[in-house]
């Protein structure tokens, strides 16, 4: 048997394009060829189970063999095998139509994955690393003859009689000079560990040496001999392929440690298992998070039939759950040949919604089953819940019942519970409920104490996402606004009818304002007199709630860049009813008046951490001189 021919692709430029566009991702050749070998192995097993193959199955496995001296890599299986006709059908006729249009469309393309993915060129990824590729195969079909196919990376191929005597296929790659990195055993082991760690058929790559007991010596002590065993690189039955009923907590924790060996134990996990209207399995873990903006994404691994595809899962997993760890496996996710990039379609959207629902249901279940344990985990899971609360309306509908609020007294409330707690004392004259919060309880302690003296409760909102969470609460909660505790003096945070009377005359008020304007002499600080309780501070410096919030969002990249470029502006609230203001007015010496006003202003700045550098030094020296 001998035949020569031309691969039917209607262009001689396909191989240079494969090599050029996939060069940056050329390690996928091994994944593709091993995956094909696994498919062939599973198919023969399936045919046997259906009674369509009655021969001996033998030891079903895939073997990867390296011959560095001869510069070859061989991927062997004992699966279906192929006849010469099947080689011509499945290998020579690359299955796509309109090759000319394809070439025209993608001649300037930069996305290799799109090219390969659209036209099913998985086998041809071999030519990214090989000058010559051989197929040596024998079909399972009775009476089939072995066949050998060779191609040198051009469109010319040759089919001759093969040498295999047993069912299956060998793919032999004659590695090119540019790809000799793959002639390193360690490099191949790394690729197999990455992509084939959980394939459903055993993958053999070389052997391991180990000690085995071999009788006893003259003194009766055990003797050992060195034996070689197959180096099987994969676990063929990972936990996500099993039923949750078969698994214990220990199994989930051990698998987590296998995936993330240097991470703390997860808080809890969710086992995904659905077969309609799409097929999806997997395990998602809630990790312990630091309370900062360290969003460690790309920790979820995507598989397709146990073949690792990618850890870029942003289309499948909702954005707010990208902080989870674990695995997802679905044959229904449309993947290109490199199996690395997702194509958005209805299945992906359904899977996204399903995962959102499963996570919400799990959190609701934990909250109802053991609220104390849920509260103990809140520091770790609060970031997930708030992120989802903000970004996903379907998740919000469930999360509004188990999202928690913490106050500075270290108490915890649901949204409904907190409303009941504060509505009697924190409703303004317009009937609007006002929630007061701090994002830095140490720095804003003076403001918190002032609010507490008024009988107001102060929420703690100091996570990286709370600036957005606060704004979202205002959108979702009926007739409710949120103000940071230092947005105004305590008497003005909630506008009520019972403001203290102003004890200064109009002339005195003007005089005080002039004294402070002159002493401060900074355009960014606008002086205003307020009628406050005599027990409040003589001077308080605040920033408008709206402006401060917009500037903080701009700093976090929240699309408020215009506000980020605006200069900071502050309100200097002078407590007209404080005895220090009366003293300033009674002081006849102009310099002493200015010095007292400046000292009161600097004290206000100091209490908020706004006094730094030379101004702080000046304040200290002035304070010493006044003692």
UniProtKB/TrEMBL annotation:
Gene3D superfamilies assigned to the protein according to its UniProt record, in alphabetical order: 3.30.230.80, 3.40.50.11260, Heat shock protein 90, C-terminal domain (1.20.120.790), Histidine kinase-like ATPase, C-terminal domain (3.30.565.10)
One Pfam family recorded for the sequence: HATPase_c_3
Keyword ATP-binding: yes
Residues reported in the UniProt entry to bind ATP: 32, 36, 77, 82, 97-98, 169, 339
Keywords, in A-Z order: ATP-binding, Chaperone, Cytoplasm, Nucleotide-binding, Stress response
GO MF term (any one): ATP-dependent protein folding chaperone
PANTHER family: HEAT SHOCK PROTEIN 90 FAMILY MEMBER (PTHR11528)
Family: Belongs to the heat shock protein 90 family.
Protein name per its UniProtKB record: Chaperone protein HtpG
Upper classification of the organism: Bacteria, Pseudomonadati, Bacteroidota, Sphingobacteriia, Sphingobacteriales
């Amino acid at each position: 048997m001998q035949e020569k021919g031309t691969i039917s692709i209607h262009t001689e430029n396909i191989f240079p394009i494969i090599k050029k566009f996939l060069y940056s991702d050329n390690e996928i050749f091994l994944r593709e060829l091993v995956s094909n070998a696994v498919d062939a192995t599973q198919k023969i097993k399936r045919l046997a189970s259906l009674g369509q193959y009655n021969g001996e199955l033998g030891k079903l496995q895939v073997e990867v063999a390296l011959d560095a001296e001869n510069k070859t890599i061989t991927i062997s299986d004992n699966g279906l095998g192929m006849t010469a006709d099947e080689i011509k059908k499945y290998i020579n006729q690359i299955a796509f139509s309109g090759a000319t249009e394809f070439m025209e469309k993608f001649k300037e393309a930069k996305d290799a994955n799109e090219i390969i993915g659209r036209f099913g060129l998985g086998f041809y990824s071999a030519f990214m690393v090989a000058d010559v590729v051989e197929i040596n195969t024998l079909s399972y079909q009775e009476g089939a003859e072995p066949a050998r196919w060779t191609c040198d990376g051009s469109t010319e191929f040759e089919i001759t009689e093969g040498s295999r005597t047993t069912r299956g296929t060998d793919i032999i790659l004659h590695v090119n000079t540019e790809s000799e990195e793959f002639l390193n055993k360690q490099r191949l082991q790394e690729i197999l560990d990455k992509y084939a760690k959980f394939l459903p058929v055993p993958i053999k790559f070389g052997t391991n040496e180990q000690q085995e007991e071999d009788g006893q010596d003259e003194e009766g002590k055990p003797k050992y001999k060195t034996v070689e065993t197959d180096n099987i690189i994969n676990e063929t039955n990972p936990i996500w392929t099993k039923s949750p009923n078969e698994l214990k907590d220990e199994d989930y924790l051990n698998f987590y440690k296998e995936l993330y060996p240097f991470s703390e134990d997860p808080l809890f996990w969710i086992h995904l298992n659905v077969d309609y209207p799409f097929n999806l399995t997997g395990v998602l873990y809630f990790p312990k998070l630091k309370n900062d903006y360290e969003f460690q994404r790309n920790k979820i691994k995507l598989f397709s039939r146990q073949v690792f595809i990618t850890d870029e899962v942003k289309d499948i997993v909702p954005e707010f759950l990208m902080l989870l760890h674990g695995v997802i496996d679905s044959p229904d996710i449309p993947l290109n040949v490199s199996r690395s990039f997702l194509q958005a379609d209805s299945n992906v959207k359904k899977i996204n919604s399903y995962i959102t629902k499963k996570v919400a249901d799990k959190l609701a279940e934990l909250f109802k089953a053991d609220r104390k344990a849920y509260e103990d985990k809140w520091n770790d899971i609060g970031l997930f819940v708030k992120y989802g609360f903000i970004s996903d309306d379907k998740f919000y509908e469930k999360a509004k019942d188990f999202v928690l609020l913490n106050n500075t007294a270290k108490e915890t409330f649901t949204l409904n519970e907190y409303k009941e707690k504060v509505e009697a004392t924190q409703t303004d004259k317009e009937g609007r409920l006002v929630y007061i919060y701090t994002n830095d309880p140490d720095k804003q302690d003076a403001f918190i104490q002032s609010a507490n003296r008024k009988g107001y409760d102060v929420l703690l909102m100091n996570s990286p996402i709370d600036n957005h969470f606060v704004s979202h609460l205002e959108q979702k909660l009926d007739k409710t606004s949120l103000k940071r505790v230092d947005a105004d003096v305590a008497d003005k945070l909630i506008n009520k009818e019972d403001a203290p009377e102003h004890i200064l005359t109009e002339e005195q008020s003007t005089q005080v304002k002039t004294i402070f304007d002159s002493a401060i002499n900074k355009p960014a600080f606008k002086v205003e007199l307020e009628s406050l309780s005599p027990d409040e501070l003589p001077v308080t410096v605040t920033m408008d709630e709206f402006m401060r919030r917009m500037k903080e969002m701009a700093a976090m990249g929240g699309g408020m860049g215009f506000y980020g470029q605006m200069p900071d502006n502050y309100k200097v609230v002078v407590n007209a009813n404080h005895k220090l203001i009366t003293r300033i007015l009674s002081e006849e010496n102009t310099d002493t008046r200015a010095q007292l006003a400046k000292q009161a202003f600097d004290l206000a700045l100091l209490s908020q951490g706004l006094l730094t550098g030379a101004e702080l030094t000046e304040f200290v020296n002035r304070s010493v001189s006044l003692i």
